[in-house]
Amino acid sequence: MTNSPYPATLITLMSERSNDQIEIGAPHAKLKTRTKSTTQKPSMYKVYILNDDFTPMDFVIVILETVFNKSHEEAMRIMLHVHHKGSGLCGVYTYDVAETKASQVMQAARIAQHPLQCKIEKE
């Protein structure tokens, strides 16, 4: 630190000590900080497709395969559940992903001129 353009008493990082200790100013003014890292899992949201009497079943299957990456068999099973029960679970995602998938479904339905609806619910 002899070649440093800053005075040694201004800020000295104590590299010999642990990373959470910093010495500021004179040797008697020490600031020790400890941070606890706690991470939480993000909230998850369920995405549902709602039944209507006008959207073709084939269109719902295509939506399930393309937007939700379902196999043809799984898409068929979900579509039949929607048809018989009124709604069907398409997947569980973080909020941003769930919102994006729901808007993709709604946009595709609007383009195809179908009244298909999609909703999200917190898990």
Description:
There is one protein chain. By secondary structure, the chain is an alpha+beta fold. The protein is 33% helix and 25% strand. It is built from 3 helices and 6 strands, in the order E-E-E-E-H-H-E-H-E. The protein has helices at 57-66, 72-85, 95-111, and strands spanning 11-13, 21-24, 30-32, 44-50, 87-94, 117-122. Strands 1-2-3 form a 3-stranded antiparallel beta sheet, with no helix packed on it. A 3-stranded antiparallel beta sheet has the order 5-4-6. Strand 2 (21-24) and strand 3 (30-32) form a beta hairpin. Helix 1 crosses helix 2. The radius of gyration is 28 Å and the shape is elongated. 18% of the residues are buried. Mean pLDDT is 84; it is low at 9-18.
Unreliable spans: 9-18
- Give the percentage of residues in beta strands: 25-35%
Q: Kindly state the number of beta strands.
A: 6
Tell me the major beta sheet. Answer: 3 strands, antiparallel
Task: Give the topology, please.
Elements: E1 11-13, E2 21-24, E3 30-32, E4 44-50, H1 57-66, H2 72-85, E5 87-94, H3 95-111, E6 117-122
Helix pairs in contact: 1-2
